[in-house]
Amino acid sequence: MSQSLARALGILIELGDGPRNLDELAATAGVHKTTVMRLLRTLEAERFVHRDGDHRFHLGSRMFALARASLEQHGIRDVAAPHLARLNESTGQTIHLGVLDGDDVIYLAKYDSRHAIRMYSRVGLPMPLHATAIAKVLLADLPAPRRRRIAESLEYTRFTEHTITGPGELLAELDRVAEQGHAMDDAEHETFIRCVGAPVRDASGRVVAAVSISVPEVVLDRDGVLALLPDLLATARAISTDYGHTEGNPE
Fold it and tell me: What is the DSSP letter of 117?
């Protein structure tokens, strides 16, 4: 990868976390402001970034168009859509679909609950790998060396008192998830939310996505959330079937 391309991509990644001014972008890139400004002008001309009245840079409209196109090219979302909508309708709870994207896990679809309390998740954005049910399901299916490499590379932000705080703890949790066939976020990311997640498999038996149900604590307690697991597993199996998986395929 060329140095200029790497720096331009670094700028876009940085802006993905929020607006930045020239000084902040130069400091992050570790290069002179004139170099960053030259890259920003090119990105701005192609609408990958835009500058506001306070001379702060934001992701531009071209980035959002590419993000939409990327999401639309994930065929699993279209296959899952009617099943996710039915699960959302029958439970009234927030439903997510997530996929592995490199070493990240992103939300591919979200169906909001009927309750006033809403989750902060957003389609297209990554989720914490150590603190979400979907991420645990997807990581648990990876080959052991890759699973370990990812676990050892994470920054273990402690969101709540229940958050996993190290690679050993995460790897043990992933072993449990692989054995039991589902995962739980037991108020590990947000203190007032519990989630259960289940795998979606393709024709080869590989886990290609995960579905979750998220419920505020004021709506259902832990046992109540676990009581939704049969419906979740049935939905994940139905999506898998429509995506080519059969019960006789390897898992």
Answer: -
